[in-house]
């Protein structure tokens, strides 16, 4: 099959060749014929099997679903225009400006990757987790295995099962800020059906959310201190900062601890003892290339 007949495969190979391992937080081992990513490295980052990636590059599979295309775009650190081209090559419409954006700019992806000493994650405007680094997985558990409800911070905060306590302790200021954020998202993306469903579902399930939503509450995210209970290192008291990305409607959460403190030592223990078992996160499809029904990706 010629490259003209397999634009998708040609694009994947070209973008894989230009992406250096260091750019995605990988260490290059052994002799490499090119500076780019190996197939197994890209497959691991995107959460697909190597065999499925080979089929895509060779044109034997030509219609990956939207979550897989979005995962590949993030793993390859594509910009918005390139992401649109990849969708079109896969026979999919480009991501709509009417929906909550989930595109993570390459600079933000590099930031997440290179802040390897701290837990860092990126959320969309509806507080759906998009991507995270290995330390986030080490601290909170690998989100790749979480159900959809666990991937959305609004649902996880307000829709806990009876008797289930919040992982980081209840925080009324955070609840107010989350609801205020969600209201702003609804105003910015009124045509997003997933967003409307999120509000309706959580309002039906949570009296607390209903109360805050109906009150027209306003709030803002500020630096705060979180208590995290970890099965391996015990209790950690961490500073939590929410950073915004101008022009992209993304939220970046970063957990840190003061240098030399017992909590910093516990974070370092996590880094050296657990971080090798997880990799930089994306919304991960099944290894055969299909996607778990619980995972929604708006890309």
TrEMBL record:
Recorded GO MF terms: DNA binding
Superkingdom of source: Bacteria
SMART domains reported for this sequence: HTH_XRE (SM00530)
PROSITE patterns (UniProt xref): HTH_CROC1 (PS50943)
Domain HTH cro/C1-type, chain residue ranges per copy: 32-83
Name this polypeptide is given: Transcriptional regulator
Lineage: Bacteria, Bacillati, Actinomycetota, Actinomycetes, Micromonosporales
